[in-house]
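We now fix the convention by which a protein and its fold are recorded. The integers have meaning only within a learned vocabulary of local backbone shapes. A complete example follows; check for yourself that the lines match position by position.
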Amino acid sequence: MTSKIENFLARRAPETPCLVVDLEAVAENYRRLGRALPLARIHYAVKANPAPQILTTLAGLGSFFDAASASEIDDCLAASAPPENISFGNTIKKQTDIAHAFRRGVRLFSFDSDEELGKLAAAAPASRVYCRILMAGEGADWPLSRKFGCQLDMARNLMIRAAELGLDPHGVSFHVGSQQTDSDQWRLAVGRAAKVFSDLAKAGIKLGMINLGGGFPVRYRRDIPAFEHYAETIMQAMNRNFGNNPPEMIIEPGRCIAAPAGIIETEVVLVSRKSYDKKEPRWMYLDVGRFGGLAETMNESIEYPIRSPYNGGKKGPVVLAGPTCDGADILYEKAAYSLPLDLKAGDRLQLLAAGAYTTTYASAGFNGFGLPGEYYI
């Protein structure tokens, strides 16, 4: 948590739950990625946190953007991003949304199927397109499974088909899974993408771009290597597979730009026990839960560090849960959180590294609970 956020919380004591993001930290995270991987063009993954303040900050730094919907494209344009700096990176798009993006000047689109190619040819003629290849996502805390991408032989044939439809077969993309801590996954993925490049070159199609996706991890409760470690692995793989004539590189970071820059402040609503057995953990209910922005606690995948007002006091095990009447609204039961025994209703906690994939997931109205407040400072 930055000193700027600490001072804001102390001065304002905002109503909870709320997200507070330090925009200077957002900018520095963006610049750090650029220093570590200077040959790659950064397309911020808008889905991570689409707040206008973040988009405006990044647009001012010259960032490009990866949009998942027509609405996100409009948000980027409203933040003064030029349309040529936006890619429509979702492989699942309505034709009307493709047409909307095309009318607004977007000319770079992803796909992974023949039917999607047909929609692109009809609604975005002559646009540049890139095919997403399938990755297993092993080692990712938030894997993207088999929902996106296609096998290499299909990618080759689809790119040939794209040219036949009058589209510009521009490149290949992949995603190794979100919060991916295994740098070898990028090495393997670059090798798979290079196979598509070489197969298409034999067919007379020269690709010009490789989209390395996102997935770059941040520090939650576990230590991870610095981003520079992943950048080094990527460049080694690029040099090995493409030599001195690499294609244009794109990366799509979201989490590693927004997450470390933000925290969620939450209030303890209730501390209780289920029996008189002191060996059983306490249950601690917060005013934010899985439906209020902590969706990534599903399967206890993302473990947010927690800061409490009681430092140095005796701690004990807790189960953490949200405030709703849904039995699924349990955040952490197996993750072995231990928090001060002095914590009680009314105390405030901070969930750290929470600037990405939190409030953008929140649903309004479930059980009558409103959305968390948001402050961008």
Q: What stands out?
A: The domain at 260-376 is CATH 2.40.37.10 (Lyase, Ornithine Decarboxylase; Chain A, domain 1). The chain has two domains: 23-257, 260-376. The chain has a mean pLDDT of 95. The CA atoms of residues 132 and 174 lie 5 Å apart.
